[in-house]
Amino acid sequence: MIKISIRNVTQTFPARGGAEPYTALSGLDLDVREGELLPLVGPSGCGKSTVFALIAGLVRPSSGEVLIDGVPVTGPALDRGVVVQQYTLLPWRSAQANVEFGLEARAVPRRERARRARDLLELAGLTGDTERYPSELSAGARQRVALARSLAFDPGVLLMDEPFAGLDARTRESLAEDLLRVWRHTGKTVLFVTHDLDEATRLGGRVAVMTGAPGRIKEIVSDREAVATHG
Ligand SMILES: Nc1ncnc2c1ncn2[C@@H]1O[C@H](COP(=O)(O)OP(=O)(O)OP(=O)(O)O)[C@@H](O)[C@H]1O
Ligand SMILES: [Mg+2]
To answer: Which residue in 1, 14, 20, 99 is a FRET match for 26, CA 20 to 30 A apart?
Structure first.
């Protein structure tokens, strides 16, 4: 079953300062299967974040369709959790309170909120004191909190745009393991954007490879050997 479907999407950004309109994506097709963790890999500027933004509902395609469960995406919604590179936690709230944040607005009872946040933090691999503030956590731990928070509403889809960029190699590897554990445990459909081919192959059975100018899917590889040679 297909969870996320991008069909023949072209994305043109309006001209700025007398320049021609820019075609970031052209005729892009991509299917993400239900329950799959699909890495989307490609060089800088090829349009990965544009694909992410389309699925997140942050931008609308110039033409073509973006579907989730066969229904067109019309904007951001709680059925899609999002994790990005830059630091997006609330600094004045503890790790635990950051994960609980969204649940408060939705009238989830306090105990239930606390329990769910604790479970998610543990699943995401945050060890130690969950009452620490973001400034007291390592960069890797902060991304574990961000991952836990993105799961608070139990979204069917998790969208990640270079969530581990800027971290050292060992931390990235350990976060990749945490993500794999979360994925196996929850069965979410995950789109994971990265420009790091090693990271992509570590995470995905299939890997979607993009090429740029204009952006499109070059190939879907499921054989790790093939990824290594085509990368
Ligand atoms: N709002 C916008 N207006 C104009 N051009 C844009 C806009 N957003 C993206 N672009 C251009 O579209 C192309 C694709 O951008 P995108 O951010 O999707 O690439 P990317 O693969 O995520 O790159 P990176 O690896 O650097 O994150 C780039 O050339 C970028 O400059
Ligand atoms: Mg990007």
So the answer is: 1
